[in-house]
Amino acid sequence: MSLSKSDSGSISTDRISDHCLVYDICLCPICQNILWKPVACKVCENAFCSKCITTWLYKQYRSRPICPFNCNYRERKCPSILLNLLSKLKVDCRYKSIGCENIICYEALERHEDECQYQMKQCKGCEKSILLKDLDDHENECDMIDVICCKCQYVYKQKEMKNHNQIRCLENIMERKMEEALKKQQQMFEQKLKLLEENYREKLSQDGRQINNHHSNYSGDNLCIHNRKHCSVIEIKQSTIRQQKRRHNAPFNPFIFYK
Ligand SMILES: [Zn+2]
Ligand SMILES: [Zn+2]
Ligand SMILES: [Zn+2]
Ligand SMILES: [Zn+2]
Ligand SMILES: [Zn+2]
Fold first, then answer.
1. How far apart are the CA of 177 and the centre of ligand 3, in A?
2. CATH architecture, range 5-108
3. Which of 70, 88, 126, 148 reaches 20 to 30 Å from 37, CA-CA?
């Protein structure tokens, strides 16, 4: 399918209605088409399609932008007299070759072409290109379109519609409810596990602090009261704590029972 030049952001002169006068100043000096979204050079006042001048300046690779007429380009609005001339133009729709017979005034062109029923759009199901005017009909029939059942929220292809009977629908509802319940249970279990782990760590660090403080509690005369037998009991407790701490640094697994 070949479309006319407004694809590239400008309108070729052969799309202008016969009875319209096309003045030279309505043409872009860069692309030689009808000016499209024009801007002008502040110095020489020549107008260009905004896309054309942007590309032009980009290709210059210079620190100072130079206009196609060799002046230091600074942008200004397109002169209103020129906009006025452009607004008098009547233009063929870019989809004329596919069947659109509309002739649209310059200013309404963009809106018409955005909505033109003769543009191709992709079907959401089979991804074939279809004329916009035929798209609704096609998608209503297209086997590959996704359909959502309003009862069970199940998504299936339109061609499987007849397989989706009441029994299938009920099965889906049950399946979903079970999945939801299972998910809820799992969440609760994970919360409990987290709490258990936090308590366990807190307990370990408390025990550790008590034992570390043990010897600093004895000084002078008190140290005699603190006899060897008492101390060895404490030492056994300390080594147990050290063991627990080593295990504690390993990944937490509540299913391993520590002796
Ligand atoms: Zn241009
Ligand atoms: Zn200039
Ligand atoms: Zn059209
Ligand atoms: Zn389709
Ligand atoms: Zn259903």
1. 50
2. 2-Layer Sandwich (3.30)
3. 70
